[in-house]
Design brief:
By secondary structure, the chain is α/β, with parallel strands linked by helices. The chain has twelve helices and ten strands. Helix 3 crosses helix 11 and helix 6 packs across helix 12.
Length: 348
């Protein structure tokens, strides 16, 4: 059953955004609130913001600061994000930064929680063609669809959820794998866990096959390049209730094999919905930048591939030398807490 929508609009809106919101909200039950005076817990939230040519909406950054300094302020809420730009840049960057901060503050997001509009609306070209309409109408339809999904989303629960853990690290030296082992110890009695390592040296990246080629192989449950993706990852993804990515920070980015794995999910995504599958991540940085990697997970798997994003979906730690992660103060308690987060959101 759809719930009432709560609207938050940081900063001055554009005329286009205001007009399309008014149309989309015309026959909906909603209320507009301020994060400074109203509770944001247990709501169905839509954050709608306009991005000026500079890419800097100062009030949006004030909202981000509020989220980061008020832990749990979005507890129990489900969210979506609408970003309206005046140019071709900055819309997705603003959206994924907001989603990461909101997740850490307790908000859950359905798959594809961002509707972004560049100034030209050219990013709606495919949607407009598929719907047989103009660019602005495709934009309006996307807003309405997002509102429906935010107000109707219910995270699936299982008695014994199936977790697929993907990594490309060496057990002998990896802080990330060592940290996962500590988390896993608290999950094994309640979850079915499958681990797939992507370090076999044969992990081909996606080469961008034509759509029809990718669709053809996807319909067969395969990919043109075969290998571990087809033999192990695809079958495990179909069965999984959640994917856990183990992400050491490589030059402020996901490792090459994990990136290739995500890219090659496209063939499966052509024919398989990931909407009922959650994504979690453990990110370990040698010095800093874990939030950059976490935002990549948000944009790649939640915004693009449609996995739903649990609240506090990622565990962010800093460790460099071998074994350093396990010596961090309070690491045992944080590992147990992250395991509890996973169980709370996936189990009945």
């Amino acid at each position: 059953m759809a719930q009432e929508l709560t609207l938050i609009c940081p900063g001055q809106g554009s005329e286009r955004l205001s007009a399309l919101l008014a149309t989309a909200l015309k026959e909906r039950h909603y209320q507009r609130v301020s994060w400074l005076t109203d509770s944001l817990r247990n709501r169905r939230l839509l954050v709608a913001a306009a991005i000026p040519p500079s890419g800097v909406n100062l009030e949006l950054y004030q909202f981000l600061a509020f989220l980061r300094t008020h832990p749990g302020c979005l507890e129990g809420s489900v969210g979506g994000v609408l970003v309206d730009g005046t140019g071709d840049l900055y819309t997705k960057a603003a959206g994924r930064e907001l989603v990461l901060s909101a997740s850490q503050a307790g908000c859950v997001f359905p798959g594809r929680p961002l509707v972004e509009a560049t100034g030209s609306l050219r990013n709606f070209t495919v949607q407009a063609k598929n719907a047989g309409c103009g660019l602005e109408e495709a934009y309006r339809l996307a807003i309405s669809d997002l509102m429906d999904r935010v107000t109707g989303f219910a995270p699936p629960k299982r008695q014994r959820p199936k977790l697929l853990v993907l990594h490309a690290s060496s057990r002998a030296t990896s802080n990330t794998l060592a940290l996962w082992s500590r988390v896993r110890a608290h999950l094994e009695d309640r979850c079915h866990i499958t681990e797939v390592g992507l370090r076999n040296g044969t992990m081909e990246d996606c080469a961008g096959c034509p759509y029809t080629t990718c669709l053809h192989f996807g319909e067969q449950g395969e990919c043109f390049y075969g290998g571990v993706m087809v033999q192990e990852v695809y079958p495990a993804i179909r069965e999984a209730d959640a994917v856990v990515l183990l992400c050491p920070n490589y030059n402020d980015a996901l490792s090459a094999n994990l990136s290739a794995c995500i890219n090659r999910l496209t063939a499966l995504y052509r024919t398989t919905s990931f909407a009922d599958k959650a994504v979690f991540a453990i990110v370990v940085s040698g010095y800093s930048g874990g939030d950059i990697v976490a935002r990549q997970v948000v944009s790649a798997l939640n915004m693009n591939k449609g996995f739903w994003l649990p609240d506090r979906f990622c565990m962010l730690e800093t460790a460099n030398d071998k074994g350093e992660a396990m010596a961090l103060p309070g690491i045992g308690e944080r590992a147990e807490q992250f395991a509890r987060i996973i169980l709370r959101q996936l189990t009945v």
